[in-house]
Every structure is written in C-alpha cells, then in structure tokens.
Amino acid sequence: MLQIFLDLLFPRRSLTGEDGAWVTEAELRQLQSRPVILETAALRAQGLECVDRIVAVADYDAAPLLHRAVHTFKYKKVRGIGEVLGGILAETSSLLDAEVTENYELRIKNYDPVLCPVPLHWRRKFARGFNQADVLADEVGRSRGWEVQNLLKRTRWTGSQVGRHRRERLIGVNDAFAIRPRMKIPEHVILVDDLSTTGATLDACAKVLKKSGVKKVEGLVIALG
Q1: What pTM was estimated for this model as a whole?
Q2: d(Cα 169, Cα 190) in Å, to the nearest integer?
Q3: 93-127 tens-digit pLDDT
Q4: From CA 59, how far away is CA 100, in angstroms rounded?
C-alpha cells in the first residue's frame, strides 16, 4: 500500500523519460555495456601499489546512459536505480570468479570473498542520506551469496576529488581510512563503489586492508574513468 501511495506521489520515470519503471528493458541492455578489467600489471604501471585488480561494468565516458544512471542514483537519491545497478554489478562480478596465473591462464577460485563497501565520511553520508556503495554491495551480496562487511571507516574529511590530478588524488586519500575495531580479517576482500576515476580511493583502502592481513584486494565498480 505504501509503495502504491509513493508511486502516485512520485511517478516512476525511466532514464530516457518513459513512465512506469526506473529502468526499461531497452535501457537495461544499454547499461550492460562492455566491462573494463585492469589487472595487476596495469594498476602498478599507474602507480597503484596495493589493489590487485579492478573490474567495472563500463568505461564512464563511453557509456552516457550509465553516467546518467549513477548521477540519478547518487544525487537524486533514487534507490530503485541503485538496486538495478547493483544487479548489473552482480552479473559483472562473475569476471572476478577466475584469476590470471603467472602463465596468463585463468584459474577458477574455490573460496568466497567478502564484500566491503567503500565508506563515506559521516558528513557526506549525513548530507546524502545513504552510502551508495552500501546499496550496491548489498545487491551483489544478495545475488552472489557473498558476505558484506563494513571493514573500513573514514578517518578524516578529504573533500571532493573532482578536478584533481592523479597524484593529487593519491595524496588526498592517503591515510584517510582505517580498519574498524574488533573486525575479523578475511583473506580476500572485494571493495565495492560506484565510480573509480583514478583508482586512488580503492588503492588507499587496499593499503589499509593489506596492512591488517588481507592477502588479496580487488575493486568492483559501476564505472571506471
């Protein structure tokens, strides 16, 4: 009954303006773009020292509808779109089910990772009302049967990273995260977020996790770049 009332007050309108759903079938096909995978060698060449692999649903600049979906989810606070994006992210996460060996062969992993949403500073979370990474991680965890743990916390306000160069971003998020107290440390963690522009935030999180004993840290995001 509540949902019917809300739909009357705030009619659902899709990303391209159609009524009745947050995302239409045609839009869903567009959102499921070509995934992007950055393996360890490519990440190290970019100065990212700790995160082992990053997988994204798509390149941000090459997928304008995905760009719009992420913006609507985060800034217009349409959680329904976030749930759709989380479902797409869960499908893309299958690319993390295998890892590249030293001989560049794929080896299927036989253990489940732990999903860790990238935390927001409390000021930003208060202003937005939610952490978009929590919504995405919950959807992936529900779909894949993986545990979600909020292992990390923000230790300081870093401000907006928009417009900063790669080196500035790396410096800006250095020492901005810490492990929450009394957490059981898993061997394999997948960091979940909506966007990764340079990988600096994911790498800063991975650095803290590895110092705490995590052996492998990967990133799973909606868009890269």
Answers
A1: 0.82
A2: 21
A3: 999 987 655 554 545 565 689 999 999 988 888 88
A4: 22
